[in-house]
Design brief:
With about 220 residues, the protein is an alpha/beta fold. It is about 35% helix and about 20% strand.
């Protein structure tokens, strides 16, 4: 099994009290999302951030799994195949930082959201939170397999042409039906990306999950 690696940000003072792991999109790398950690870190003291590269090389970047037909069956097969290497990375990062498993936050973008939802709902211990930007729930008909039901925040642009906003709406409906607490934020006019309000909503939700009070 290929070990994952990528940029990290550790707390400036003292041991980590929570761990936020960013999961990038198709064809990108860990550097793409670690900047979010850099912008959030001043507001989340004690939180460690990690942003691994996905396991497979894809052009100039990486992928969690190949995308050819881009249908649900392919995405389900992909997340299932990539799950063991991500689970191993999460276990190693929790051990490295000394953070307990219930203080883990997964933040995904696009294909990374598919991985965050798939793995996060099947961990031995429920993560504190899953945040999914511009994503998709692979294998919604497999939600009965979920071992845990952590809170989920889904954020999506209304003008996304890569993964339509309906993807997050359908995911929210399926997760809610399965008993998973879900919040859905739609960013008007946004394409396949993350805007300022999405980052603010994400920060507020992560801070709440970590028990950190933000300044007014």
């Amino acid at each position: 099994m290929t070990a994952l690696h990528g940029p990290r940000i550790d707390p400036e003072n003292g041991p980590a009290t929570a761990l936020v792991v960013f999961l990038h999109g198709y064809g990108s790398d860990g550097n793409d999302l670690i900047g979010i950690g850099e912008s959030w870190a001043p507001f989340l003291p004690g939180v460690a951030f990690s942003s691994p590269n996905a396991p497979q090389i894809c052009g100039m970047g990486y992928q969690w799994f190949p995308l050819t037909m881009r249908n649900d069956a392919e995405r389900w097969t992909g997340v299932e195949a990539a799950r063991p290497v991500l689970d191993a990375f999460l276990d190693a990062e929790l051990e490295r930082t000394g953070v307990s498993a219930d203080r883990l936050v997964l933040v995904g973008f696009s294909q990374g959201t598919m991985m965050a939802l798939h793995v996060g709902l099947r961990r031995p211990v429920a993560p504190a939170l899953i945040v999914g930007y511009s994503g998709y729930l692979a294998g919604a008909d497999h939600l009965a397999e979920a071992t845990v039901k952590p809170p989920v925040l889904l954020v999506h642009g209304t003008d996304d042409q890569v993964l339509p906003a309906q993807s997050s709406k359908l995911a929210a409906d399926a997760l809610t039906a399965a008993g998973v607490p879900v919040s859905l934020h739609m960013s008007p006019g946004l394409g396949h990306g993350i805007d300022r309000m999405g980052l603010i909503v994400g920060l507020r939700t992560v801070a709440n999950a970590c028990g950190i009070a933000l300044p007014n």
